[in-house]
Amino acid sequence: MSEETLFEKLGVKYIEKDGIFYPLITLGGEENSTDVGKYGRMWMDYIQNEYPQRYRSLVRFGELHDKATEVNEVAYELLEDIENEWLRKHKPKHANSFVEMYQLRNQARMIAEEVVLHDVVNCFH
């Protein structure tokens, strides 16, 4: 017969630790930063360091996670397209040579990553 707290009225969930209930309160958008992918995390770091006002704005409106996920998806699509195009143009001289194919794939990945970092990750979105 106790009265509901403000947090309970707002639907905030609680977690119990050592007999004490703590409300689960997080800053919107930043709590999911670990699952935005490699390029999403790199973009978040870039925006935070180069454009702190934009970063704070995205955090404030809860859009940081969504934007970082979008950047990650675009980056991986571009990465795959560049790699495939480069490998189409540069065929191995010996089709069954593992080492030669490995080297070609590494070259394609390095070229593609450089383009992705320059054109997608290190950009103001």
Structure, described:
With about 120 residues, the protein is mostly helical. The chain has 5 helices and 2 strands. The chain has helices at about 5-10, 40-50, 50-60, 65-90, 100-120, and strands at about 15, 20-25. A two-stranded antiparallel sheet has the order 1-2. Helix 2 packs across helix 3, helix 2 crosses helix 4 (about 65-90) and helix 4 runs antiparallel to helix 5 (about 100-120). The mean pLDDT is about 85. This is TnpV protein. It holds the Pfam family TnpV.
Rounded average pLDDT: 87
User: Which outline best applies?
Assistant: elongated
Beta content comes to: 5-15%
Q: Please state how the strands of the largest beta sheet are arranged side by side.
A: 1-2
Protein name: TnpV protein
InterPro entries: TnpV
Organism: Blautia intestinalis
Topology summary:
Layout: H1 6-10, E1 14-17, E2 20-23, H2 38-50, H3 52-60, H4 64-89, H5 98-121
Antiparallel strand pairs: 1-2
Helix pairs in contact: 2-3, 2-4, 4-5
Label this structure with key terms.
elongated; 125 residues; mainly alpha; single chain; two-stranded antiparallel ribbon; TnpV; TnpV protein
Quick structural gist:
With 125 residues, the protein is mainly alpha-helical. It is 62% helix and 6% strand. It contains five helices and two strands; from the N terminus they run H-E-E-H-H-H-H.
